[in-house]
């Protein structure tokens, strides 16, 4: 069984348990987090004790914890992974997010399994297969259009499988699981949680005749994903789990972006009463969520509404920020900044930046600021200001001097547009407590039938009930109205509990005088009873049973692109009808040139060199062809080849000899210590 089809799930990331707890407080219905090992973010692991601490809190709200165990595994890692999964289940984890199908061949606890983005789900056939194999939730490739998402939903059963989709955060330019550049160049495998992010580097783009098409452009760097305007369309397409990227992100980011999507989804729930949140509680915030305040490379909705030409962050992989004003005057140690909005303010430590004459982003962090009035501020930057032509250097410096960071603010002149990419006021706001999450309850105070005391019944918005009673000597109140008000006010004081009072009913023949201490005791006992009732009502997510006989895999031949890295994964695909199964790229079998990245992004299209763009253009039609291009970064060279039928780009290269040699040395060293590095290497007979 998957998430009920009428429930919507906001799925937030957590690098640490403390960040996960804040995600919960800011509206997450589920949290995904790394465990002690085998997660696709190598430096974002958490102990079993921390996982247990997080699950204990999420269960109080009916929220869930999904643990990432989504790397591909060597043969010698399968048993440690199996043991870890049992430990995670005992710690309360609700589901595992996995990539390696070899795990489905192991003796696992009855923990629900979800398909990682690394499984590269692009087609209805792949989505249906993973559902039939026993995965209860599948995250579709970020590159799919709304129509393609709807096709995957149509091919699957909403009662058996939940469609999950990324709605915010950094974009991997490759189809996830289909990038091997990092491993080929450095030995660090993206499929094993250690990507070197070659996609964020600057490249020279050269055509087949050696001509430069682009110079020092980050042509594989994407803007950040933002589906804020598409949530209703995604719901209509069948998405029920809305995933925020960011297991490396800080707490401020997770607070802000989780709160942003919580508010947006709550608006939808108000409009559509047939839908509901998948966990309990209503959030209140001390701030107005704003995605522009966090690190971003500007935003795109990627391919949701078809191919767009402006999806890339080609000028810089850094955060360009938001424009706030322009330079009025430049001095030797400071510059004057005229704000576009004179109600805005600057603060010491604000992150400022601008584009230089080469369109490169230059940081100009404000070390100190002075308010000159009228929206004008004097900014003393952290780094020295480079002297303009004809202007003497600042006292105590030479024209070639550099600040402690080794940088100077060059090309800073009158009229330069200044952006702010970090507001210290915003940072400080999110460093403080910034949200509360409470579950609504109805309270009824009544006389006991024998007249010996009072009872308090609390019913929460999920229908759970807490009941308590207390013997109280009946004393008729002198002022009936005042007694009713005082008692109702006392019952509403639910303190640090999960609950907030929606309504209080007083069912007594005439008002009693109830001492505050007795009212507090009654309230505390009823809260404890309701907590117990909620805990008893919590049901762990069930593990889905695979279809029998096994559903055939959509293909009968798998290349290295299937990421089969152990014998159990090979057995899984063979059991599902695959005849030829190649080893994963990390097995070092592919020594020649291969596709090191497959991506829906097309450099030709983004540079207006696509043959399809040229169709119908007089004088251009037929002259533009999808010939290969070359990417050059220092000594690294990659070839771009274009597959125009599916409209995809392949980045082609081969593994460095040094990477292959290091792998062999590591394997030999492990073998000498009696711990062989075992890989699936040989292909089965057809």
From TrEMBL:
GO terms for biological process: proteolysis. The keyword Ribosomal protein does not apply. Keywords: Hydrolase, Protease. Residues 388-407 are annotated as: Disordered. The keyword Protein biosynthesis does not apply. One of its GO terms (molecular function) is peptidase activity. InterPro entries: Pept_U32_collagenase, Peptidase_U32, RNA/ubiquinone_mod_enzymes. Residues 418-534 form the Peptidase U32 collagenase domain. PANTHER family: 23S RRNA 5-HYDROXYCYTIDINE C2501 SYNTHASE (PTHR30217:SF10), PEPTIDASE U32 FAMILY (PTHR30217). This is Protease. It comes from Comamonas serinivorans.
């Amino acid at each position: 069984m998957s998430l009920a089809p009428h429930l919507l799930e906001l799925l937030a990331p957590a690098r640490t348990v403390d960040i996960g707890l804040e995600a919960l407080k800011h509206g997450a219905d589920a949290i995904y987090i790394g465990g002690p090992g085998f997660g696709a973010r190598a430096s974002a692991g958490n102990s079993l004790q921390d996982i247990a601490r997080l699950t204990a809190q999420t269960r109080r709200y009916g929220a869930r914890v999904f643990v990432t165990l989504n790397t591909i595994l060597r043969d010698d890692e399968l048993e440690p992974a199996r043991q870890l999964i049992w430990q995670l289940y005992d710690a309360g984890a609700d589901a595992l997010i996995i990539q390696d199908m070899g795990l489905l061949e192991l003796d696992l606890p009855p923990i629900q399994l979800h398909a990682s983005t690394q499984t590269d789900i692009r087609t209805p056939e792949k989505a249906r297969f993973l559902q039939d194999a026993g995965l209860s939730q599948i995250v579709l490739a970020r590159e799919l259009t709304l129509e393609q998402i709807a096709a995957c939903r149509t091919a699957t059963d909403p009662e058996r499988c939940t469609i999950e989709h990324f709605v915010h955060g950094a974009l991997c330019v490759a189809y996830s699981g289909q990038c091997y550049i990092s491993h080929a160049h450095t030995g660090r495998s993206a499929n094993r949680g250690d990507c070197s992010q070659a996609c964020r580097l600057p490249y020279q783009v050269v055509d087949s005749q050696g001509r430069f098409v682009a110079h020092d452009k980050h042509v594989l760097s994407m803007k950040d994903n933002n589906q804020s305007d598409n949530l209703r369309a995604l719901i209509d397409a069948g998405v029920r789990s809305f995933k925020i990227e960011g297991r490396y992100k800080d707490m401020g980011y997770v607070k802000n972006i989780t709160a942003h999507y919580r508010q947006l989804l709550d608006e939808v729930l108000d409009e559509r009463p047939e839908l509901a949140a998948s966990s309990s509680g209503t959030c209140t915030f001390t701030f107005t969520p704003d995605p522009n305040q966090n690190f971003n490379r500007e935003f795109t909705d990627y391919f949701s509404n078809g191919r767009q030409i402006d999806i890339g962050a080609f000028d810089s992989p850094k955060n360009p920020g938001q424009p706030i004003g322009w330079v009025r005057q430049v001095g030797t140690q400071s510059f004057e900044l005229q704000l576009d909005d004179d109600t805005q303010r600057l603060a010491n430590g604000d992150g400022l930046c601008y584009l230089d004459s080469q369109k490169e982003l230059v940081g100009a962090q404000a070390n100190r600021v002075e308010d000159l009035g009228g929206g004008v501020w004097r900014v003393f930057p952290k780094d020295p200001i480079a002297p303009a032509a004809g202007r003497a250097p600042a006292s105590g410096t030479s024209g070639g001097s550099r600040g402690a960071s080794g940088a100077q603010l060059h090309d800073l002149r009158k009229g330069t547009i200044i952006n702010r990419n970090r507001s210290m006021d915003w940072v400080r706001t999110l460093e403080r407590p910034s949200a509360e999450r409470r579950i609504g309850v109805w309270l009824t105070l009544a006389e006991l039938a024998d007249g010996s005391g009072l009872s308090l019944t609390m019913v929460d918005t999920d229908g759970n009930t807490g009941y308590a009673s207390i013997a109280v000597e009946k004393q008729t109140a002198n002022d009936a109205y005042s007694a009713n008000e005082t008692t109702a006010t006392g019952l509403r004081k639910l303190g640090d509990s999960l609950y907030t009072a929606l309504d209080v009913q007083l069912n007594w023949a005439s008002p009693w005088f109830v001492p505050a201490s007795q009212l507090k005791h009654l309230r505390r006992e009823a809260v404890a009873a309701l907590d117990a009732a909620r805990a008893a009502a919590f049901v762990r997510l069930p593990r889905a049973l695979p279809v029998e006989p096994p559903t055939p895999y959509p293909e009968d031949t798998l290349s290295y692109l299937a990421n089969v890295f152990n014998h159990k994964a090979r057995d899984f695909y063979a059991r599902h009808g695959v005849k030829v199964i190649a080893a994963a790229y990390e097995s070092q079998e592919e020594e020649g040139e291969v596709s090191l990245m497959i991506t829906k992004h097309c450099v030709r299209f983004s540079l207006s060199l696509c043959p399809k763009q040229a169709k119908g253009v007089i004088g251009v039609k037929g002259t533009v062809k999808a010939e290969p291009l070359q990417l050059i970064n220092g000594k690294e060279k990659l070839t771009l080849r274009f597959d125009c039928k599916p409209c995809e780009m392949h980045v082609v290269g081969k593994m460095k000899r040094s990477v292959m040699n290091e792998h062999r040395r590591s394997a030999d060293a492990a073998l000498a210590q009696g711990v062989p590095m075992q890989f699936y290497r040989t292909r089965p007979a057809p």
